[in-house]
Every structure is written in C-alpha cells, then in structure tokens.
User: Fold these one by one.
Assistant:
Number 1:
Amino acid sequence: MLVMGLEEFKKIRNSLLGYLLVGIALLCIYTAVEAFLFA
C-alpha cells in the first residue's frame, strides 16, 4: 500500500514539474515575442 502511494506521489510530482517547466517555457516565449513586437 505504501509503495503504491509512493509511486502515485512520484507520478503527481513529475506531472507537476512538467507543468511548471511548460509554464516557464511559455512565459519565456511570450516575453520574447512581446519584446520583439513592441521593441
């Protein structure tokens, strides 16, 4: 039971980390595009 919970926790943590990385990437792209368009 504990092992199952640990695996689920790892999956959730990995997906959260993935969403965070995607969010940062989108923010960087958005900032770059905005700087390029309104320079």
Number 2:
Amino acid sequence: MNLDRVRAAAFGDRPADNVFAEAAAGGWAAWYAAVALGGQGHYAAALTTLTPLGQGRDPVLAAAAWTALASHRRQLGAHTAAAGHDGEALRRLAQAGLYPLTQDTIAPPAPEPLRSVVVDVLLGLAADAIGRGRLTAAARLHGEAVSTLGSDPDWRPRVRIGWVAAEIALAKGDPHQALPASKHACDLAHTSSSVRHQTKSGLVLGVTQHVLGLPTGVDFLRSVIKNGGQHGLLPLVWPSALLLSEAEPDRVGYHRNGAREALTTVLGRTDASGRRLAARSAWLPSWLLRSSEPGDAASRMNFLTD
C-alpha cells in the first residue's frame, strides 16, 4: 500500500485520483482515501469508509474519522448532525486521555500528528457552531484550537485556522477582519502542494473580497471553478458558481446552470441519510435544488456547503 500516494490525493497534488481501492484497505490509508473522496463529493463512499474507522479501537484514527464525517455533513448543511460527530471525536480522544493535550500527553504513533487531529476536531466544532449561529462558542473553540496548535509549524491546521477565523468574522458582519485571515490562509496554502486547500482558500478569500466589494473577489471565484472543475473538486465548484450568479448578474443563467450541474453530480454521490439531512437545511435557495433532487425526493429540499 502506497500511503504517500493516497495522502497526496487527500492533502497534495493528486486530488482527483481514484482511491476506491485504498478506501477498502482499512487503517490510515482508508482515512486518507475517505478525505479525498469527500473532496470529490463522493460522500456515500466516504461514509462507508469512515464508519468502521470511527468504531475502531484506535482513538486517534477514530477521532479523525468522526471529524472527517462531520466535515462532509457540514457541506450538506447539516451542522447539528456534524456537531454530534465532532463531539464523538472529542469524546474518543478524551476517553483515551488524549484531550486536552498537556506536556505529559504521550501521542501514539500515527501518520497524522495527534495535535493536528485535536485541532481538526476543535475547528470542526467551531464551524458547526458558526452554522448554528453560535458565534461566541465558535470564537471560543477557535481560540482553543489556536492555543492547542501553539507554535507547531504544520501548515494544514494553520490554513484551517485561517478559514474558520475568516468565517467567524464574516458571520459577525466584519469582512475587514476576515480579510487578513483569509489572505494568510491562502498564502500559506500555496506553500503546500495541496490543490484542494489552495482552491478552498481561494473560495474563502474570494467570498471575503466580494463582500468587501473588491473586483478581485470575482477573479478568485472564477479560479475556484476552473481549478475545482479540472481536479474534480465539485463541492467547491457549485457554491462558487452560486456566488458568481449574484456577482455577475449579466451571466446569472450561465452560473446558475453551472451550480446546478455540479450539485447534481454531488447529490448523485451522496448517501440517502446525507440527502435527508440536507433536506432539512434552509441555507440554500430552493431554485438551485429542484432540478438537482433525486427522483424520490420531496420538492422542499435545501442544501448548503459551508
């Protein structure tokens, strides 16, 4: 099993790779595969892979599995369900004496550092809180993630810290505060080889600049659609197209069709439970989804990516 190859699909320059074989392998290789599958919008396959990992005996791998599943649920607008999954991740770590981290904590050997996994969980809980309008809790959890990471130079949690900081500021109606956080995350992502993190960072920065009325925001969103389409990152394509339909009213039909096309593909790759959770989300305009629903779905369905 080539762990480097599947890790490059999750966090490197090969996000479009076919990782279904690795998803069936178990262990950390399966976790990396599930992360890559989620980035491609293959939520059903990711759920199938993550479920046994989350129920396994390795507390770090289990926590990583639960928080990855939470991320996929958030992308369908199911922030309450996601909070339950992130909460289970934190419980597994605490039960094993791995949370909160102290100078005496002995991290078990794993491809992903324990500190990064703990930060992932805390940031996931912060993102869950943003989606439910609990901004004070989100800021507290974000602050705990920052202090937990400390001076650790790992680029990936630092990029995510920037995303969540920007999202909190935007939710508070302060895009000026969001700008340096989103810009730093974007710059840092480009020091890595991760196409997905670079593209998501472009989305966060593009949204921030668009809210500020800067014309460069549209450029970033166009770049997200181009790169996301090229590398199969459809969960980033459709929200960018949706935003462009508002930013470029003279091309509203073109962008709405692009959003529908990408979302239709994602929904076709989503498990039934994910679709049911998404149906209860009121975050996305219903016009986007009626043509994207599975044949047996109710017409009231709404979806969100965070």
Number 3:
Amino acid sequence: MPGTAIVAGVGPGFCESFARKLGREGHPVALFGRSVDYLEDFAAELRADGHEALAHTASTTTGSSDELDPARLEEMWCLYAYGGLLCVREALPDLREHEGTVPFFGAHPDSGDYAFKSTKDATRGLARSLAECHADEF
C-alpha cells in the first residue's frame, strides 16, 4: 500500500482534486483545512468511494492589527509556517528512502487579512528554502 498522504489547506479546488487523485492511487489521505463541515463531508465522500480518509480542522481567525492578540498571531505562525517545517522534517527519512515529494500549495489571501497573509508569505519562503537546501538529495 502506498504511504499516507497529508494534504493541508484542503478546500474546494486544487487541494480537493489533489486529495482525490492521491486516494485513487491508494494513499490513505489525511485532510487538514479550516471548514469543519466541508472537511467531514469530503472525508466521508472519499471513504464512500473506498478510500481511507481522515479529516482534521486547523482553523484560525484574525481581526484588524489593533485587535489581534500577539499570542494569536504566534499561534497562526506555528500552525501555518512552522507546521510546514515540522511536516517536512518528519517526512525526510521516508523521502530520502523512497524519493518522495512534498508539495506546498498556498492561498493568495485578501491583503486585508494581514496576519493570515503573512503566514502564507512565510510558508512560500519556507518551501523555497527547503527546496534549495535539499536540492542535491532528490
């Protein structure tokens, strides 16, 4: 059986299509996203099609810069940017052994949501840095 695929940021669109493809290829799929109802419905749909799927909600909310608690911003950075680093770090032994790939897909959030947007910009930079750091390995 192919290894478990973790798809973070699942919503209607590209990540949903990507998760379906992975399920069809036999990968158990762990789905992470912001909408509880959507994720649970999508995971149930995948299971009904005979695929293994687990849904986990990873949600954040923000306000204006003068309303956001700095601890909340730190939590968002840990979830989005630091979380990506931890996922790759845990996957590296398997990636080295089986020559896998870790795709990062990101939203282009509304510029008014400065906290969320800053985490997406950081994740994009992290993905580029990791690719450069490990380019000679894969």
